[in-house]
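Priority: low. Protein: Tim17/Tim22/Tim23/Pmp24 family-domain-containing protein. Input follows.
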Amino acid sequence: MPNPLLDSDLRTPILTGAAGCALAGSFAGSLLSVVRARPFWSFTLGTAVNCGMVGFTYLATRTMILQEQLERQREAGYIPHATDENLLFSSAIAGGVTGGIWTGALRGPRGVLPGFVMFALLAGSGQWGWTTARRFRQQVIVASSGSVRSNETAWDVFRASMYQQWNDWCFQMGQRIDWLPMRKMTATEYRTHLQERLALVNAELEDLERELAAAT
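Result:
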């Protein structure tokens, strides 16, 4: 996987996000220190460092996974573009990795799997909610500009868009998981399948022609 920390364009958002997490952690830590009657500066600084490290781990992992998907698009001859499915997959896996690492560090090996599952669900749900809100906002703008049919509302267009997004995500996951018993075939796989069937039919026709020639 590409290392996002070696690219300044990728490194800056990661460090900025980690700093934001640390700032939020310091604010939360200061409040908790007052509520729980703990030493103010040590509790605030400790919470800030922990939140900053968690934020850095999540953002760096998410960026790394997302860049790997964009690299695959380049290798396939496509223009690299982060789709909603790419963002959802990257966020969920990055959340799971981050949760597994930190819960494992705090609670031991038994906390790795529960932490992975819980944080993957949280990160995936957060990304899905953000994508849903952004798509709905786009559909409202499109509807207000008169770019949809008169009998369609922004909600109708948004619902159809989300249905298509769900189908695309299921298709992408089906392509990633090789052991699924059923999955949608790609155009290349379908073309190969047709060629194999055509070769089989041609072989059967040749056998019939030989049998007819032998019979006559």
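The two ends are 66 Å apart (CA to CA). The CA atoms of residues 70 and 80 lie 5 Å apart.
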